[in-house]
Design brief:
Helix 2 runs parallel beside helix 8. With 242 residues, the chain is α/β, with parallel strands linked by helices. The protein has one domain: Rossmann fold (3-Layer(aba) Sandwich), CATH 3.40.50. The longest helix has 21 residues. Strands 3-2-1-4-5-7-6 form a seven-stranded mixed β-sheet, sandwiched between helices. Helices cover 41% and strands 21% of the residues. The protein is built from eight helices and seven strands.
């Protein structure tokens, strides 16, 4: 039974990532959000099928990592045209992960990854350990525990985050928080509708495309000027001591 559930979760994650790959404006928005944390040498944790990885092609060097060999291979194929992007199969929870410090990364990003990990405190410490002194970590996670619903459960999300919890994780990881903010106020209500009323188990492609075409173009500049009081997601940027 456990093997079947694991296969089912992997298939659902792949299906969702393939649907999200249509959200070009959303990934552009994510790139601009994490821009303050990006240096020239980036480690991406949990690259999946590489939908965001390709947006890092303007960096000097990128090391995309994933615990799944299949996902890593998908990213490798997707980014094969970029000589500055390398892909490695390694789990952030592995004792081998801190050895990536030899790569001398000045930034590490994990976008929609931390919520899948039971021991998220250790995961943050592992990511902090691969940063060079003064390097920055960017964590993009689902926000608002009250939004947790069937889609979260179906994707293997252990939790959704509050500012207090995410801040505490960064500090316990030896990092100084530079900024933390809620993101996607419109998505908050959409996720609530899906979770509490419609009880959907996966994000419909139509919703993803509608948001990307009609909501993201005006929502991003609005939230750049004013943080929403509630958000579907949350972004933290923290720095390792120099």
């Amino acid at each position: 039974m456990a093997v079947i559930e694991t296969v089912s979760l992997a298939a659902q994650l792949l299906r969702t990532q393939e649907r999200m790959a249509h959200a070009r404006r959303y990934f552009d928005w994510q790139k601009r959000l994490v821009a303050p944390a990006l240096g020239r040498r980036v480690i991406e944790v949990g690259c999946g099928i590489g939908s965001f990885t390709a947006h890092l092609s303007d960096r000097d060097a990128v090391l995309a990592t994933d615990s799944s060999p299949e996902m890593a291979e998908r990213t490798r194929a997707r980014t094969s045209a970029f000589r500055n992007i390398s892909v490695k199969t390694v789990d952030v929870m592995s004792p081998d992960f801190p050895a990536l410090r030899d790569w001398k990364a000045d930034s590490c990003i994990a976008l929609n990854v931390l919520e899948h990990i039971e021991d998220d405190g250790t995961a943050v410490k592992q990511m902090a350990a691969v940063l060079s002194p003064g390097g920055r970590l960017a964590l993009f996670v689902p926000a608002s525990p009250r939004l947790y619903g069937p889609i979260d459960a179906n994707l293997g999300h252990v939790r959704r985050y509050t500012k207090d919890r995410l801040t505490l994780l960064a500090r316990e990881g030896g990092l100084t928080v530079e900024s933390i903010r809620r993101v996607n106020g419109v998505g908050f209500f959409g996720w609530w509708l899906n979770a509490s009323i419609l009880r959907l188990k996966e994000l419909p492609l139509g919703q993803i495309q509608f948001f990307d075409d009609w909501i993201a173009p005006w929502l991003e500049p609005m939230e750049r000027a004013l943080e929403p009081p509630a958000g579907q997601s949350m972004l933290l940027i923290a720095r390792r001591a120099g």
